[in-house]
Design brief:
- The protein has a single domain, classed as 3-Layer(aba) Sandwich (Rossmann fold), CATH 3.40.50.
- 46% of the residues lie in helices and 23% in strands.
- It has five helices and five strands.
- A five-stranded parallel beta sheet has the order 2-1-3-4-5, sandwiched between helices.
- Helix 1 links the parallel strand 1 and strand 2.
């Protein structure tokens, strides 16, 4: 069974690249996309993905707002943060909001796939609220 993923990034080129990357992974299915936090949360509620791959900085609150809303609503969705920013403050903010992983946009593409797979594996083991 494929890992169902919602992808959110405000940069159209990055969003398309992520969707294409995930589209070639046989064990991952992109079930929704968004370019802002409000739409990302709506997509998560509509599609009930296993994992939400969220850009840290996007309109209407960014990935942290979506992650916190997912957690506050009790949705069984793991959050993987993706960012151009590699600093402790941003990482800590995303982790506090509920992200289980944090990957860099300019890092190895295999890191994104591995983070999604690890997040989904945590979900299947039922470890709600776990962090990396």
């Amino acid at each position: 069974m494929a890992i169902r993923v919602v992808v959110a990034d405000d940069q159209e080129v990055m969003l398309e690249a992520l969707v294409q990357l995930l589209g070639v992974a046989p064990d991952i299915e992109v079930v929704g996309t968004a370019r802002d936090a409000v739409t990302a949360l709506s997509m998560c509620e509509q599609t009930a993905p296993d994992v939400a791959l969220l850009d840290v900085r996007m309109p209407y609150g960014g990935g942290a707002a979506v992650a916190a809303s997912i957690r506050a609503r009790g949705l069984d969705i793991r959050v993987v943060a993706i960012s151009a920013f590699d600093d402790d403050t941003t990482r800590d903010h995303m982790t506090a909001a509920g992200a289980t992983a944090y990957v860099l946009k300019d890092g190895p593409i295999l890191d994104v796939l591995a983070a999604i797979r690890r997040a989904a594996a945590r979900a299947t083991r039922g470890s709600v609220g776990s962090t990396p």
